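Tip: read the tokens left to right.
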């Protein structure tokens, strides 16, 4: 696809969103933006954006962020695994969900080996548990984004490690008189699966949040004092942040240093750091930015796929676009694709990033901007002791 076609599609999507979403039109008026103006690389930063907090539940604008008649066709809302206790709520129709899934799929194949590997260890619960974790807004259920993309992994042999703890739930009801389900890691399953993979040399992907992997495998190692030799067989895919020790309803008392995580996994499984893929994505946008580990930066380098979209980095104080490399600012994701049902064409997030190269990756040579995630604007406040998920030491 040529850049010209991308900018033409972007122009049309901005124009159409202005015509069928009042909130986006108001943003356009506020920015005094002329919808007929030409969009190219140098004018990209002028496009009106929706600040991330507009999607927040507490803001109660998520319904108005839907375009045209999307609300009537909507089957369910997508909810972010909120780090603040105030999730983002996004409405997506089938076409938009398909674009999002295809973007994630590209990352898992380009930066990892998704289609070549058939065994998966997922630090996530089965669908019947996910289906129980739901809210309801305007008479439509809201589920974690994960529900919509889990079928990316269909056809694989999957070990779901997160499960519902019946005993703990009952004890809690008896002692607190509160109905709260506890979900945690099945240590026995983890142990038997790791042994099976090592013994039979089964190519395997271990995936989901870094926070689970870090904590659970640390506990596992403490108990078993056992490492594994999976040198060519194990690939690790992380995503959704959580490096500050908080991810949705799960909270640790400490930050996970990314280099420490890499080192821990490498020594526990005897793998090299080229086996890692970190997917940077936000529930508010369909874009997915694949990342590989970089020894030079001692960090993940994330890549913008120009076929999916573009990014802008804005100065924290002035919100003006930053053009230089090596200066950090707030990340904005821009895409004309996968945003037919809601005003997601340009979303300003709360992530602070630093672009290391605007044109291509100096290490893997992929085309498109390359950035590192430095910080967040909003301090993450986990749900602490009201946590639904338990990170108690793994029972084997
Ligand atoms: Zn690269």
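Filled-in amino acids:
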């Amino acid at each position: 696809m040529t850049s010209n076609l991308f900018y033409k599609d972007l122009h049309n999507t901005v124009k159409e969103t202005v015509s069928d979403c009042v909130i986006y039109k108001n943003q356009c008026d506020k920015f005094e933006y002329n919808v007929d103006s030409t969009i190219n690389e140098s004018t990209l930063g002028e496009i009106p954006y929706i600040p991330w907090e507009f999607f927040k539940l507490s803001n109660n604008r998520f319904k108005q962020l839907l375009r045209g008649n999307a609300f009537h066709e909507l089957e369910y809302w997508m909810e972010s695994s909120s780090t603040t206790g105030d999730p983002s709520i996004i409405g997506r129709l089938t076409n938009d969900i398909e674009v999002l899934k295809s973007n994630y799929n590209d990352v898992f194949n380009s930066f990892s080996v998704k289609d070549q590997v058939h065994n998966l260890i997922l630090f996530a619960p089965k669908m019947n548990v996910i289906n129980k974790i739901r809210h309801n807004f305007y008479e439509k259920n809201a589920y974690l984004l994960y529900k919509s993309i889990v079928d990316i992994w269909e056809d694989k042999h999957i070990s779901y490690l997160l499960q519902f703890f019946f005993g703990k739930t009952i004890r809690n009801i008896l002692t607190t008189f509160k109905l709260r389900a506890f979900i945690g890691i099945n240590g026995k399953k983890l142990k038997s699966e790791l042994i099976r993979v090592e013994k039979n040399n089964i190519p395997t992907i271990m995936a989901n949040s870094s926070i689970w992997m870090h904590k659970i495998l640390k506990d596992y190692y403490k108990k078993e004092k056992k490492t594994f030799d999976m040198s060519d067989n194990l690939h690790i895919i992380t995503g959704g942040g959580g490096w500050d020790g908080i991810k949705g309803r799960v909270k640790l008392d400490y930050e996970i240093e990314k280099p420490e995580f890499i080192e821990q996994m490498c020594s526990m499984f005897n793998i090299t750091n080229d086996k890692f893929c970190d997917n940077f994505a936000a529930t508010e946008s369909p874009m997915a930015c694949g990342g590989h580990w970089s020894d030079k930066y001692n960090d993940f380098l994330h890549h913008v796929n120009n076929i999916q979209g573009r990014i802008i980095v804005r100065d924290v104080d002035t919100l003006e676009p930053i053009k230089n490399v090596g200066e950090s600012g707030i990340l904005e994701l821009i895409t004309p694709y996968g945003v037919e049902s809601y005003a997601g064409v340009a979303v300003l997030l709360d992530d602070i990033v630093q672009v290391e190269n605007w044109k291509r990756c100096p290490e893997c040579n992929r085309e498109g901007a390359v950035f590192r995630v430095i910080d967040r604007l909003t301090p993450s406040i986990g749900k602490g002791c009201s946590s639904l998920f338990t990170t108690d030491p793994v029972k084997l």
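The pocket of zinc ion is lined by residues 292, 301, 303, 361, 363-364, 366 (CB under 6 Å). The chain has one domain: 3-386.
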